[in-house]
Design a protein that fits this description.
Layout lengths: L17 H10 L14 E5 L3 H13 L9 E5 L1 H4 L2 H6 L7 E3 L5 E3 L1 H12 L11 H18 L20 H4 L7 H35 L22 H21 L18 H11 L2 H20 L3 H9 L13 E8 L7 E5 L8 E2 L2 E10 L14 E5 L10 H20 L3 E11 L27 H12 L2 E2 L4 E2 L2 H9 L2 E9 L11 E4 L9 E7 L4 E7 L7 E3 L7 E9 L10 E3 L13 E10 L21 E2 L1
Parallel strand pairs: 1-2, 6-7, 6-15, 8-17
Antiparallel strand pairs: 1-3, 3-4, 5-8, 9-18, 10-20, 10-21, 11-12, 13-18, 13-20, 14-17, 14-19, 15-16
Length: 638
């Protein structure tokens, strides 16, 4: 709940009769019985307090004309909170606060709202769901708001709540309420995470309601009043009253001072459409109610006055002066970048290239640059996973200190990557069969023995639905060394493994000890955004075999992501084939030129490892020596 937003606000005059109300409220806290109870409860409000506004909304929406007949409201200003009289009302010196007729104080907005709805619920429309399931859903929405947005959290000690990152500063509020820029960035990130959660919760609620309606499962209906409504739970509840005033803060401050898009405008496009379309629709529906719009106007006018007074200037100046690129304060604004998409072949020719042999001219390899929207994958909440999106970022330090020594990579790095792929995918056994070092100064896409290759600046996926099983058979024929068996797998072993679920998984990391990746980072595409007809085959014609990639026709529907400033300790893990068909299978990827990178960005140096993951392998009948290593073997696995 709110104590203040500006300690220098003495220019605001006290409301009439305030001290008389304080005196009566103070008398209610005396140890002796009251000579005379209050005529009705007194609600202490503050115009710009988001937590007081949720109570003010309740009184406006519960009954036409408000609840003045039953509850007396007193509007406070910041200086009033510092007076000893108000400390007797609320020892925390915050609003809102409610004094009951017998003198008992009630504070914390969620407690006040619950009391008012319980006490005066029959005065107007019910603002709590009728079912236990509906009430639990409402309480969860309120609790998330109060714990992670409007209350202090683990990003910093002290009073400062996450929402305070939008308006509290050392320059305006002093050391007691201000915060440094890293703390501000952490709290701004918390606001983004909780909005992501709320948007996802609304989407999940829509799916649940659709399922219940489709299957006529009336017994699972959370509340008969909720069906089809525009509010957070369908019907108007205390959850809407809780979130709306805080969203007014966000609407005013986040685009204006932190560069966010217009979060709650469904039609806004500059600098980007809202990342939260369901929240935007809900917010618009709330504003359609005149009483709600009136409360928004009160809060908005206050913050306009404070902006004119200079409250936000210290924050704007602090951000402008920062030279730390790791401090993220802007969310939800993707950038436009150019990616190289494969051109479909002309009639009579295929698509692909010859490798280490003469080109016979029967395949073409032409690309065209196309503009796409590139999103920051670090903004995904919940974070990306192999099961959900087909890719994930894992923190996984390495002990390998020489990536130019193939023997050292096989001896040290392969085992680390086996453990990583198991952890990221849930696979039981993993085989590493190849790796490539890439440096942005090179031009050859395929590395010579002991050398490095160039980044691949073209959209592709390493395997096709038919090519991946064939590649497994080829690797088996070449000889896969099993650490568990202590020998090379037989063709029969490989057939048994291929009968179950298996996936080809790549792991990509920077090998630069000094800098994060700033030149030619790797982008990955959400496969759910790729239509099957967008894919076509690209052949890699080696002297001894023909491999198959997927190429991709450009579509504006493709959703691209990358992890900015990826460090050496971070690994991008992604699937390039999965036999299981009910999830991500083919993650298209490409290196690209990041327009946000500095002109003097250091060259990219990276390593990619290719693995096969087996999820339900047959049980081993022979003794297992888990301590065997695969040093010197071309392929290693366990």
């Amino acid at each position: 709940d709110t104590s203040s937003c500006e300690p220098g606000a003495e220019h605001y005059t006290n409301m009439r009769h305030l001290h008389r109300a304080f005196a009566r409220a103070h008398s209610t806290l005396a140890s002796t019985p009251l000579d005379k109870p209050l005529e009705k409860p007194i609600f202490f409000d503050m115009c710009h307090s988001n937590n007081a506004a949720r109570v003010r909304l309740w009184m406006a929406l519960k009954r036409p004309g408000g609840m003045g007949h039953a509850i007396e409201s007193r509007m406070l200003t910041y200086p009033d909170l510092k007076k000893a009289d108000f400390a007797a009302v609320n020892p925390l010196k915050k609003v809102p606060a409610l004094i009951l007729p017998d003198g008992a104080p009630v504070f914390e907005s969620n407690v006040i709202l619950s009391f008012l709805e319980d006490k005066y619920g029959d005065a107007g429309p019910r603002l709590t769901p009728r079912t236990p399931e509906g009430r639990a859903a409402m309480e969860l929405l309120c609790r998330v708001h109060d714990l992670y947005i409007a209350s202090p959290n683990t990003t910093a000690p002290g009073f400062s709540h996450s929402q305070g990152a939008m308006y509290l500063s050392y320059g305006w509020h002093g050391p007691e309420r201000g915060m440094d820029l890293p703390t501000r960035a952490a709290k701004i990130a918390e606001i983004w995470r909780q909005l992501c959660w709320l948007e996802a919760e609304l989407e999940a609620s829509d799916r649940r309601r659709a399922m219940v309606s489709r299957l006529h499962l009336d017994k699972f209906t959370r509340d008969p009043d909720a069906a089809g409504g525009p509010h957070l739970l369908g019907q108007l509840t205390l959850a809407d009253l809780t979130w709306f005033p805080t969203c007014v803060f966000m609407e005013f401050m986040l685009p204006r001072f932190f560069g966010w898009p217009q979060l709650f405008d469904p039609a806004a496009a500059d600098p980007a459409p809202t990342p939260f379309p369901r929240l935007a629709a809900w917010y618009s529906a709330m504003r359609a109610e005149p009483a709600v719009e009136a409360v928004r106007a009160e809060i908005w006018a206050y913050w306009e006055e404070m902006e004119a007074a200079g409250q936000f200037k210290p924050i704007v100046d602090e951000i402008a002066a920062s030279a730390d690129p790791t401090l993220k304060l802007t969310y939800g604004v993707p950038q436009a970048v150019q990616l190289n998409y494969q051109q479909p072949p002309p009639a009579g020719k295929g698509t692909g290239r010859y490798i280490n042999q003469p080109d016979l001219g029967d395949v073409v390899d032409e690309h065209v640059a196309a503009e796409v929207t590139m999103r920051d994958a670090r903004e995904l909440h919940p974070p990306a996973s192999l099961d959900a999106l087909g890719f994930a970022l894992q923190s996984w330090p390495t002990k390998c200190d020489d990536f130019e020594d193939d023997d050292a990579v096989v001896a040290t790095y392969y085992g680390e990557m086996m453990d990583l792929v198991k952890a990221a995918s849930g696979a039981e056994r993993v085989f590493i069969f190849d790796h490539t070092v890439r440096e942005s100064g090179n031009t050859n896409l395929n590395a010579a023995a002991g050398g490095s290759a160039a980044p691949v600046p073209r959209v592709h996926c390493d395997y096709t639905a038919s090519g991946a099983p064939r590649r497994l058979q080829q690797l088996g024929a070449e000889g896969i060394y099993s650490r568990l068996r202590g020998r090379v797998l037989t063709p029969e072993d490989v057939e048994e493994l291929a009968a179950g679920r298996f996936a080809f998984i790549n792991v990509w990391r920077s090998i630069d000890d000094s800098h994060p990746v700033m030149q030619q980072p790797l982008a990955v595409c959400d496969e759910k955004s790729v239509a099957e007809e967008d894919r076509f085959t690209y052949e890699l014609r080696f002297p001894d075999r023909t491999g198959e990639n997927y190429s991709l026709r450009h579509s504006r529907a493709h959703r691209w992501y990358y992890f900015p400033r990826q460090t050496k300790d971070e690994c991008l893990v992604f699937k390039v084939y999965d036999k299981r068909e009910d999830g991500p299978r083919f993650v298209f990827h490409t290196a690209f030129s990041d327009p946000s990178s500095p002109a003097d960005a250091p060259p990219r140096r990276s390593i990619e490892v290719r693995a096969i993951a087996f999820f339900d392998p047959p049980e081993l009948e022979e003794p297992v020596d888990a301590m065997r290593t695969a040093q010197g073997e071309p392929f290693a696995g366990r």
